[in-house]
Amino acid sequence: MTRRLLAFVTALACTPAALADGDGDGGAFSFPNEVEASLVRVIVGLRESGLKAAIGEIDSALEKTPNFRLGHLIRGDLLMARAGRPIAFATSVEPSSLAGMNSLQDEARVRLKRYLDAPPPVDSLPGPVLQLAPGQAHVILVDTARSRLFVFENQGGRPAYVTDFYISLGKNGVEKQREGDQKTPIGVYTVVSAKEKLPDFYGTHAFPISYPNDWDKRNGRNGHGIWLHGTPSDTYSRPPFATDGCVVLTNDDLTRLSRFVDVGRTPVVIGTTLDWKDARAWEAERDEFLGAFGQWKADWESLDTNRYLAHYGADFRSDGKDRAAWVAHKRKVGAGKSWVKVGISQVSLFAYPGHAAMMMVTFEQDYRSNNLSNRTQKRQYWARDGNRWRIVQELVVS
User: Fewest Cβ atoms nearer than 10 Å: which of 21, 123, 163, 284?
Assistant: First the structure.
């Protein structure tokens, strides 16, 4: 093996040999599919078994997925390395092939980094997901820094790791602002539909998400058509940043993901870095906010209008009203109440990606008073204002 290829392998394969034996059982070092397992085994096994075994491993992967361009590049490099002339990961290449080769190198590094920088042990929890409603069986988290999509199961409101997949994102990165900027949005969304009869470009099927959401619209973000979808039939996978803003998986991985998608219910959280917390820190953050949320409910039921309105921030907006107009309306309504009871259920809570101190809470509200009763689904956005949480946006979503 030449020095150049050995240097690349050493940089990426400094991880336990046991990594190559992932059994796909959902643990931190398991593989979501056999192709990715083969890729890792090629790199890790080079130091231990040599070129012949690595070539055999990649040949096996390509037999299953002949349109895996990265696999062909690695196979070519292994063959050239055996002849003393590596090309794919050399420090100098022909300019005409540089762009395409760089994108495949990026894919290799991102895929392998997942196993060098694996999720923490099972007692750690994803920071953005603080509570799942009973009706949300799973949640999807997209970690754009890792080019990775994680699936978590709802276990009594807490997220439990299930699996994860390599993904491709917008050509121009993340934080979508406008139509056509070729960026992937950051935020909390929901799978809104499923599409199966599509042009070949989108792969076998697709799951559109609810971009732009209400927070996006408030902040002037526009555009549409952000989907989770697959790849054309002649393409196994795409480079890490290669889409017009959608989140793209291999067709095989998208089929695997479909098992965890419930249209209209499954949340999709897209953030720049997936933050992991130990259980104690995660619970403390959740409970501290839910304390403020519970106090909002109690102050509403108390009929103390000033205490109730103090939960709403100076820049609050609701249904086209600014805070002053909304407060005037609430004082008028409150004047006719002799009692109020507010039932809260089906609570989901997310620390909003891209904001250091903002929460999005969605819940079912059963409102009863002396002159009105109704049941609605509400969503609120809360932001930290000094040492307390205040609502900055509130809307009825159904």
Answer: 123
